[in-house]
Amino acid sequence: MPLAQTRAWAQATRALGARCIWVGSLEDQASGMVYELPHEPGVFQCQNGPLLHWDDPGRAVKELAQFARALSVFAGSSFRELRIRPRLLQTEWSTRMKGFPLDAARVEFASTTQVSICASAHELMARFSPRLRRSVMKTFAQEPETDWIVVDRDNGPDLAESARLFGKRKGFFVPPWEWFGALIEAQQEGVTFLRVAQVRVGLSTARAWIWIDRSSAYYLYGDYSGPRLKSGINLGAAVQVVAMLGAASEGATRYDFNGFVRDTAANPDYAGVSAFKAQFLGEIIDYAVPEFVIQG
Asked: How many CB atoms lie within 10 A of CB 227?
């Protein structure tokens, strides 16, 4: 199930003030999280969903009609439009859409990279590129303080504020503590968890926020504070290793970096981040994200 199509994500989105609901139930295929676009009243979007039998176009369109009717009941007379943006494997995109009666208004393409993880540091790092492995081993030779933090309402606000301020300095958005707090409230014991990996050397600290859902771990946000260390010491890579090992200890087997850009020539701002992620030698997964529009 895509991360954006979970009840926990719906609860966190509501915490930011969005008009957001879960339509259907987890047992139904025709289900998903939708939210009203803040500047377009009556227009709802379903990101990476809904959950339909996309491999059976005839069945999927009936489920989609059922889904739209359920949403219209919630929205009432204000309902104007539903935009659905399912995330489909790019290799299956053309096959699955054959026979589907709706034409996509547009199609975007996205990628992520996933690393197969385990609880053995030696075995895990053997899967990395030689350059990254040397950098991580040199960093751990500094005997850094490491921690796998269970986020709660006592330690969470300060951790979230540090991440938010780092994002502000670097030009990317990190949600406020209320969003993370909603994820905590949505945790299911033994199933979903919110954690922070931390690595510290002297006055320098790197952190990574991780959401674990069953066997999948998702990297959400990271932050760094303190002076940059000497060449070859890479706290950013080390904290990802701590995150992977921590997630594996909670039962995860796959670590999703939550985004990857193949064409960095066309997206130069992501070149450094994508090069960093590529060193972990994970599987790059490509998606097609069509947008279908249903009028109210």
From this structure: 9
